[in-house]
Amino acid sequence: MKPCPETFPYPLIALDETDSTNRYISQLCNELQESVAELTTVTAEFQSAGKGQRGNTWEADKGKNLLFSFVLYPTFLEARRQFILSQIVSLSIKEELDRWSDEITIKWPNDIYWRDKKICGILIENDLSGHFIGRSISGIGININQDEFHSDAPNPVSLKQITGQEHDRYEILSHILKRVQIYYNSLQTEDGSTYTAEIAARYARSLFRRRGFHPYEDADGRFSARLLRVEQDGRFVLEDENGKEREYLFKEVQYIV
Ligand SMILES: O=C(O)CCCC[C@@H]1SC[C@@H]2NC(=O)N[C@@H]21
């Protein structure tokens, strides 16, 4: 395993072990306020209490994977536009992983899949300041060099299992952060709305099961539907087999994978 290079292009805190890199960086930001620069990143070789979506835990073998969190202060972004952060983070990861496979997709809202297996999970925690976003912490777990999975997590896969080779985790990390920075900067230019539309279009093209009918489950049970669109605020719009549109917020619908 290669160590973290001294030339890493962003401020980096590389920990051997912590409970959760999201918790670590948010505590650091609470203590030091905005002197923690944007894109400061915390990595860990191991997390004892990695946080997942929906209150789940995130498990990963020690020293094999990418477990990291970084901070942004998108104070120019209205809270109702916060889904764009999820789009730029998931696109940045997908585009990096595209180097090794053309079967990488984004499973709404922001899991990264290879075929029908999960390679990466993303947990974005935003602190709002009035109608705007004050601070955004993106926490990302990517299965990189893990050989096998022991937990009952559904359908995990690692990059090594896909390619048959070990990968340099810090190289992948620096590429992802560069992509995030480019997308993020684009939102702050005069052409921000053009870039927002371009990001939405790329995101739509990258979606898991974006064509055809597939099984889903909501509070009323299972049904078959096709994806119509994802709205700017992140709502997921399906059309069921009776031609009825069904619209969902996060966590209200599950794919049956
Ligand atoms: O449930 C999911 O899919 C999201 C998982 C996010 C896990 C990552 S690992 C690094 C960062 N620190 C955490 O505690 N969680 C995120």
Automatic annotation (TrEMBL):
GO molecular function: ligase activity
Annotated keywords: Ligase
Recorded superkingdom: Bacteria
BPL/LPL catalytic domain segment(s): 1-188
InterPro entries in the record: aa-tRNA-synth_II/BPL/LPL, Biotin_CoA_COase_ligase, BPL_LPL_catalytic
Protein's name according to its UniProt entry: Biotin--[acetyl-CoA-carboxylase] ligase
NCBIfam families linked to this entry: birA_ligase
Entries under PROSITE patterns matching the protein: BPL_LPL_CATALYTIC (PS51733)
Organism encoding this protein: Bacteroides clarus YIT 12056
